[in-house]
Amino acid sequence: DAATPAPLAVECRGVTRRYAGVVANDQIDLEVREGEVHALVGENGAGKSTLVKVLGGVVRPDEGELLVDGQEASFHSPVDARKVGVAVIYQEPTLFPDLSVAENVVMGRHPRGALRRIDRGAMHEEVQGLLDRLGVRLSPESPVRGLSIADQQIVEIAKALSFDARVLIMDEPTAALSGPEVERLFGVVRTLRDHGSAVLFISHRLGEVFAICDTVTVMRDGAVVHEAPIAEMTPDDMVRRMVGRELSALFPKEVAQIGPPVLEVHRLTREGVFFDVSFQVRAGEIVALAGLVGAGRSEVARAIFGIDRADTGHVEVSGRRLPAGRPLAAMHAGIAFVPEDRRMQGLVMDLSIARNATLTRLRALTRLGLIRVGAENRLTREWADRLRLSFHRLEDPVVFLSGGNQQKVVLAKWLATEPQLLILDEPTRGIDVGTKAEVHGLMSELAGRGVAVLMISSELPEVLGMADRVLVMHEGRLREELSRDDADEERVMRAATGVGAA
Q1: With 50 as the cut, is the pLDDT of residue 75 above it?
Q2: Helix (H) or strand (E) holding 424
């Protein structure tokens, strides 16, 4: 009944949290009700992660109070949060890979039989009941090691339900999932909602927010700037409140002068991965490699840069043939490669911002075997200004930066080499709307200066918004080439799923 709202499951009143003098959460008021999926959206650095840590018992607020089921709650650790039924499901599941699904779910609370021995029958029965309740087909006896990220998240959800969690906080749960996996997770979320659980859903993907959520809270600069039923919002409204600008400003594509070919890929094949791939990218042109996850796009990029060795075919840069399997030769030829996984492949997380940003230029910054710190800092500061990097000190480890700012450091590292060809693999994955617009603006600016850009992206709006040409891959082969004018969502998806032209 609309007149009587559902009871409050969890509530923040005036929650404030500071880190080293920076206010990460500023007087946050938030109400999440039973039987509701409540979205929490905002740019990176808006304070969402800090609020999740407060609600999950990882950090304590400096001011304000938390209420669970109307009772004041004080969490000293995640165990305290769990005791009152609050559980956080993180983007990266934290399970024991060598144990079974059931053992992970009941970890620390195994049912005991005679002689205090673990009752495996009871354990499997209990976990099967939880999986049935979630409406998923997973065997309690399966080892976790072979499970997809999507299945691991469902194990995490079952684990939360096993200790009667009534408030589930899902932090970017779909970031690493494919379309069908997202749909299945949403089925689980709807089941939870229908059973009266409260779900706080954090996502950068606005389409998902509109698909699954009932209410939305928008954060900006550590504060709540808006809260409304989802039915009263449009994607444009949401973006405007998150970043203070229109959605159309997301893809600031300028018309560039297209020059001669910079990259020419000739019949590149890697057995079992991709086959007979040929294309070119010209100076000033942004070419998108589109397709579904597993189509072979990243593998083609890795072969071009020389990380993986192709079996046949070759690559030319500005008319000169590259030796296969030699990234250093690719760098010397003027190729820069920003990988998909910035934490594992793009950055050294324990090193400083300055050292990460200048890793590709160490030889130029070294004299008599010593790195000139002053020169290193000057170069980093120049790129930090150009990329509008938010940081405290250049000496701080890069691990302390938000995802969007980490991506800017990876870009700085490669742009400092002044490349002819920039390969970007998922350049805006997991970063917020405002930083996306900045990265897109930078791509357009580089193309305007004659850099050839090869972009791999799974986000169709990004492909259509930024590319001069779209190359669509399906199961390791180039299926279709579309001009900017001819490319639309339907044509790209038809080719990506193998329905379109061969």
Answers
A1: yes
A2: strand 421-425
CA atoms of 1 and 199, how far apart (whole Å): 20
Phi/psi of residue 267, nearest 5 degrees? 45, 45
> From residue 243, how far is each of 44, 357, 390 by CA, in Å?
10, 26, 15
Q: How far apart are the first and last CA of the chain?
A: 53
> Which positions ≥6 away from 237 have C-beta within 8 Å?
none
DSSP assignment string, 48-91? HHHHHHHHTTSS--SEEEEEETTEEE--SSHHHHHHTTEEEE-S
The DSSP bridge pattern shows strands 286-291 and 223-229 to be: unpaired
DSSP reduced 3-state for 169: strand
Q: How much is the pLDDT for 502?
A: 45
Pull the structure tokens for residue 195. 């059973």
Q: What does the buried/exposed string (b/e) look like for 142-174 if buried means 16 or more CB atoms within 10 Å of the residue's CB?
A: eebeebebbbbbbbbbbbbbbeebbbbbbbbbb
With a cut of 90, say whether residue 382 has pLDDT above it: no
Helices in 139-292 by DSSP H: which ranges? 149-162, 179-194, 206-212, 235-243
Least reliable range by pLDDT among 269-273, 299-303, 344-348, 380-384: 344-348
The token pair at 413 is: 């590292």
* Rounded CA separation 485/381 (Å): 39
pTM above 0.70, yes or no: no
Coil, strand or helix: which one is 350?
Answer: coil
Residue 59 has pLDDT above 80, yes or no: yes
Distance CA 158, CA 135 (A): 11
Q: What is the three-class DSSP state of 404?
A: helix
Report residue 467: phi and psi, to 5°. Answer: -90, 140
Residue with tokens 């492909």: 463
What 8-state DSSP symbol labels residue 293?
T
For 55-68, b/e burial (b = at least 16 CB within 10 A) is bbbebebeebebeb
Winning range, highest mean pLDDT, from 115-119, 188-192, 330-334, 389-393: 330-334
> In terms of C-beta density within 10 A (0-12 exposed, 13-18 middle, 19 or more buried), how is residue 232 classed?
exposed
Residue 364's contacts (CB-CB under 8 Å, 6 or more residues apart) are none
In this structure, what DSSP letter does residue 308 have? S
- The Cα-based distances of 345 to 57, 348, 395 in angstroms read 31, 8, 21
CA 155 to chain centre: 21
Q: What is the dihedral of CA 159, 160, 161, 162, to 10 degrees?
A: 50
